[in-house]
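Appendix C reproduces, verbatim, an entry submitted by the partner laboratory led by Prof. M.T., so that reviewers can inspect both the input and the predicted structure.
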Amino acid sequence: MRKYVEVFTRDHLPKLRDQLLFSGLTDHEIFMFIQYAQPYYMSLNRGSTARVENKFSHMTGLVFSGTAYLYSVDYNGNKSLLKTIRSGESSGTLYAMFDYYNTLVEIMAGEDCEILFIPPEPMFITEDSLASIQQKILVNMLASQRQVFLQISEHLACLSKRSIKGKFMHLLQIYCRRERSCEVDLPFSRDELANYLAVDRASLSRALGELKKAGIIEFKKSHFKLIETAEYHFD
């Protein structure tokens, strides 16, 4: 872990500009904030892992390149997936991502990724010369927080269903409504989907097969089609 200013170049600006946290900021404003905030930087190659030390647990995390999986680690070393974080998503990629004070947290790179750890003080304690930049960032954080709450609500709604079929069908309908289409690509591998729904992968595969056999869905890998009904279709 090192200071981001040690590796920052202007080639990074397009990646940062695409993140919700820096939405609406010019390259110069992003550069000014990086210089002021002095965030920490982590780079992970695909498949590699890193533990988050306690001194970073209160910081805002921003995955600005690649994909990372955030796990909690229990007493026996067992891991539970907390969050899948993809660069550029407008969902909860940044607000208090590492705010797990009483949890041992581990990050695994789903693909090569770069992560910033931003201390809270540069965002919440006003500096006169950067006040307009800080205001934009706080507005962006509120927008991100709204997306986080929406994601949590959707996730809980899926988990509240008693059967695996019910969990999956609720998730599929969420994505269909969002895309206004009965054909969607779910942003999950089979393992990620099983983790998200808190079910065994083999049981999930069996449930998907039964739904397909019943003529309710069709699928190939992560592409799913919900068979339209009179009650459920899009024009």
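Residues 3 and 40 are 4 Å apart (CA to CA). Additional entries are available on request from the coordinating office.
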